[in-house]
């Protein structure tokens, strides 16, 4: 089981990372990621139902530590999709909206404090009741969700573990968004980069390669930082993004090629008007 799980998880994480390069729209990327995770869970379920587990310890390990990692990705991307599609307009309203979402996470934490303590302190004295299929105790922090779940591939608490993991990620996401709002320039004339981060990384490396700044005596990090400040964007690990661009089998300079085509088209249109 461990080998199959590790291979499945590794494949999923690679496919999700590839979406960062291949898909420009963030919402489309999230939708594609959700689809990949659902496929992954389907494969895991098929394997579990067919092969089963060697012993109780393997079953507990799967439902306590392994399955929740993948399910947490599904919860995370689904939550981010909802957050982004419901996001209001205006910095003040957005800030209020993000704070409200953070309060939801806090309520879940408060309502499940005992289980948080149990899980995060790595206790195991009730593992056979909450991480083995077909066993449940309604007195042990049981959610209504469990009664609607497929009990051949669920225990009473594996989803709650996934929720804990996902909420940590969602909290980081929301706090990062709030920090960006706090750091964002308030000038109405400030420019905002609305294309993908991958596209901007491609442009930055093209300019860096052409040595257009300080006769080529400028570090790529300084150039990236200048663009981040100018366009109110955080590129993150832009070097990793560049390596993914290099790894593309076709159309490695997609954004630059589109720029050239758009500029030539604009010139041709103006020539026709003269």
From TrEMBL:
<keyword id="KW-0175">Coiled coil</keyword>
<protein>
    <submittedName>
        <fullName>Tetracycline regulation of excision, RteC</fullName>
    </submittedName>
</protein>
<dbReference type="Pfam" id="PF09357">
    <property type="entry name" value="RteC"/>
</dbReference>
<dbReference type="InterPro" id="IPR018534">
    <property type="entry name" value="Tet_reg_excision_RteC"/>
</dbReference>
<feature type="coiled-coil region">
    <location>
        <begin position="2"/>
        <end position="29"/>
    </location>
</feature>
